[in-house]
């Protein structure tokens, strides 16, 4: 054995630790991926979906929902969704609930940016540069409500912390969540 063996061993240990503790988004699993396996609706969507690899708490539960954001019309007593059959008019919502504080977590919303951006202007307090040259729009109210909005490909994404018993989430933490997003599933177009 040569005298360089301890140095090589230490270098390998350090490199292994750097890889293990790396923040590389490509190496990280989607947050709550195990809990989301039952959400078959995610697999039927035509558009690509990006989700966070990082949330700042241990996940107790993930819930999934969709809601219509397209044009509507009132006919008699009924409010009709005019284009229910078109995927672009449906937003998806995932809520990641914290194990430490069951009323707290983060809400992640994905919608087709052509629908949302054509129909409303997004109010914000601060324009934020995200990793990869993306631009996000952050807002926080006096009541503790916060959100960060940005686009990836043809989707608009919103991260909104929910904090029942806790202090509002630091803006830097919300940015870290947004920057952790990676492709969950490619679009089918």
From TrEMBL:
Organism: Evansella vedderi
Superkingdom as given in the UniProt entry: Bacteria
Sorted UniProt keywords: Membrane, Transmembrane, Transmembrane helix
Designated name of the protein: DUF4367 domain-containing protein
Transmembrane segments: 6-22
């Amino acid at each position: 054995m040569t005298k360089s063996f301890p140095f090589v061993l230490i270098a390998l240990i350090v490199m292994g630790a750097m890889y293990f503790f790396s923040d590389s988004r490509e190496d990280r699993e989607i947050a709550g991926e195990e809990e989301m396996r039952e959400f078959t609706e995610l697999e039927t969507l035509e558009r690509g979906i990006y989700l966070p690899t990082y949330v700042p708490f241990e996940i107790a539960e993930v819930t999934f929902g969709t809601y219509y954001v397209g044009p509507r019309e009132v006919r008699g007593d009924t409010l009709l969704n005019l284009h229910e059959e078109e995927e672009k008019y449906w937003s998806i919502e995932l809520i990641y609930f914290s194990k430490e504080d069951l009323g707290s977590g983060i809400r992640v919303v994905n919608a087709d940016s052509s629908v949302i951006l054509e129909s409303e202007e997004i109010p914000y307090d601060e324009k934020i540069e995200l990793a990869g040259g993306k631009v996000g729009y952050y807002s926080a109210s006096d009541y503790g409500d916060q959100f960060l909005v940005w686009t990836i490909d043809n989707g608009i994404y919103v991260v909104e912390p929910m904090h029942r018993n806790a202090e509002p989430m630091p803006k830097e933490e919300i940015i870290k969540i947004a920057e952790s997003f990676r492709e969950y599933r490619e679009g089918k177009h």
